[in-house]
Structures are given as structure tokens and as C-alpha cells.
Design a protein that fits this description.
This protein is mainly alpha-helical. It has a domain at 38-127. The protein contains six helices and no strands. It has helices spanning 2-9, 12-19, 24-61, 72-80, 88-115, 117-127. Helix 3 (24-61) packs parallel to helix 4 and helix 3 packs antiparallel against helix 5 (88-115).
Length: 131
């Protein structure tokens, strides 16, 4: 958040807003926060998918959550031992991991597209919607 805020703070349109006489509060609320918040939210959504994969991977190899607690990586690990005669025990937790991580990645991609004015304009033009 700090680096993103500093990047936005040093953009030319912030200097223009200062020259135009806007107060520091108005510059922060109208320019800096909206432009710094979107990349942060996109990164948070991507990091959520990565955290799910990391937690599942650690539980799969036995370093994560211990057996009485249900966790997707642990369920896949336990199902892996009986994969020859009961494939569904490992398949469905693995499918849940896949759907959740892909869902978070698609959500972050849609969030990025909806927040970026250039991409949003292109999408609206393809759909035939005028702004």
C-alpha cells in the first residue's frame, strides 16, 4: 500500500491538482486513494488464491493443519493413499481447491478490468455501450 501510494502521489496529475489549488484532503480522497486502492485490492485477491494453494500444499505434505481439523490439502493427502479404489476421496477436495483458486484469479482479473479506465472503455466499446 505504501509503495503504491507513493507511486500515485508522484504522478503528474497530482502536481496538476496541487497547481489548480485543491486541498491536500481533496487530492487524497479524489485522486490518491482511488488510484492506489484498486491495485491493492487486485493484489489481495491474487494473494488469497496463493495462500489457499500454499496452505493446501503444506497440509498435503504433512506440515500444515493436523488430522482432526478438516483442510483441503489434508483431505487430498488422505485420499491419495486410497486413490486406486476410492478416487473421489482425493478428487473432490482437489476440485474444490481448483475452483476456489481459479475463482479468486478470475475475480481479481475482473476487478482489474473494471477499475482500469482504458480496459473498461475497450470492453464497453466491444459491447456497444456508450459512456
Amino acid at each position: 500500500v505504501y509503495v503504491q501510494t507513493n507511486t500515485v502521489k508522484n504522478m503528474p496529475y497530482i502536481d496538476s491538482a496541487k497547481i489548480a489549488g485543491l486541498s491536500s484532503f481533496k487530492i487524497m480522497t479524489k485522486h490518491v486513494i482511488p488510484n492506489a486502492l484498486t491495485p491493492t485490492l487486485v493484489q489481495a485477491a491474487l494473494d488469497t488464491g496463493s495462500a489457499i494453494l500454499e496452505a493446501a500444499g503444506l497440509s498435503f505434505i504433512g506440515v500444515g493443519v493436523k488430522p482432526p481439523t478438516p483442510e483441503w490439502g489434508l483431505l487430498v493427502s488422505e485420499g491419495w493413499q486410497s486413490i486406486n479404489y476410492a478416487w473421489w476421496i482425493a478428487f473432490f477436495p482437489g476440485l474444490a481447491i481448483l475452483i476456489t483458486v481459479v475463482g479468486f484469479n478470475l475475480f481479481s482479473d475482473a476487478l482489474r478490468e473494471s477499475a482500469d479506465p482504458r480496459i473498461r472503455r475497450t470492453i464497453l466499446m466491444r459491447l456497444g455501450i456508450k459512456q
